[in-house]
Specification:
- The chain is mainly alpha-helical.
- Helix 6 crosses helix 8 (169-203) and helix 7 (158-165) crosses helix 8.
- It folds into two domains: 6-108, Rna Polymerase Sigma Factor, Chain: A (Orthogonal Bundle); 111-203, Arc Repressor Mutant, subunit A (Orthogonal Bundle).
- The protein contains eight helices and no strands.
- Helix content is 69%, strand content 0%.
- The termini are far apart.
- This is RNA polymerase sigma factor, sigma-70 family.
- InterPro entries: RNA_pol_sigma-70-like (IPR039425), RNA_pol_sigma-70_dom (IPR014284), RNA_pol_sigma70_r4_t2 (IPR013249), RNA_pol_sigma_r2 (IPR013325), RNA_pol_sigma_r3/r4-like (IPR013324), WH-like_DNA-bd_sf (IPR036388).
- One of its GO terms (biological process) is DNA-templated transcription initiation.
Length: 204
């Protein structure tokens, strides 16, 4: 269930999106400023060449403006932009080899490194647990990592993630379910190990 804040954000986006389609330049700038950095972060998950990623994102926004009259008023702008960037990067790979070993959106390798600003976590025990959890996430298959990123970093729904990945709802739900099951299983083992280590240390 979406929170009130998320619902308000979606309404605001929907209004700005319709204004953009109607040719409002300020609305276009608003969406560009709001999502550019998020799109760069997502794009960098497929390539180490940030300039190429930014070029792809700028091309996406150019197309959004040029072909705004053909855009669907009822789609979520954030989902649409993430999907377009993903597709653009996949196409770009066909023209040069800077990007990872992928030729389609279905085979793009998601390279995002889950980490945490340790300085923001005061409690040492909590910090260690978060570090361990991020390590587990980074060991997941590429597609499962991407689903987790879109679900919890970008706060997208299963439907929206399915649209971005170009797969059906059930496949997306299964990916998320498998990744969470794997994390719970491995996480339980780590917590048990940490508890044992803590007890042993206290005896030394």
């Amino acid at each position: 269930m979406k929170s009130t804040t998320e619902h308000i954000k979606e309404i605001d986006d929907a209004i700005v999106w319709k204004q953009l389609i109607n040719g409002n330049e300020k609305a276009f700038s608003t969406l560009f400023d709001k999502y550019f950095n998020q799109l760069v972060l997502y794009g960098n998950s497929f390539s180490s060449n940030e300039e190429k990623v930014k070029d792809c994102i700028q091309d996406v926004f150019v197309d959004v403006w040029l072909y705004r009259n053909s855009l669907n008023e009822n789609i979520a702008p954030k989902t649409y932009l993430l999907s377009c960037v993903r597709k653009r990067i996949a196409r770009q790979h066909g023209r040069d080899r800077i990007f990872t070993k992928a030729t389609s959106t279905k085979t793009l390798e998601f390279l995002f490194d889950f980490s945490v600003e340790h300085k923001l976590i005061i409690d040492e025990d909590s910090k260690n647990k978060v570090i361990q959890l991020n390590k587990l996430i980074n060991l997941l298959p590429s597609k499962q990592k991407e689903v987790l990123y879109l679900r919890y970093h970008q706060e997208l729904s299963i439907d929206q993630i399915a649209e971005i990945l170009n797969i059906n709802y059930q496949s997306t739900s299964n990916l998320l379910h498998r990744s969470l099951l794997k994390l719970r299983k491995d996480w339980s083992s780590i917590i048990y190990t940490l508890l044992i280590f803590s007890k042993i240390s206290s005896l030394l």
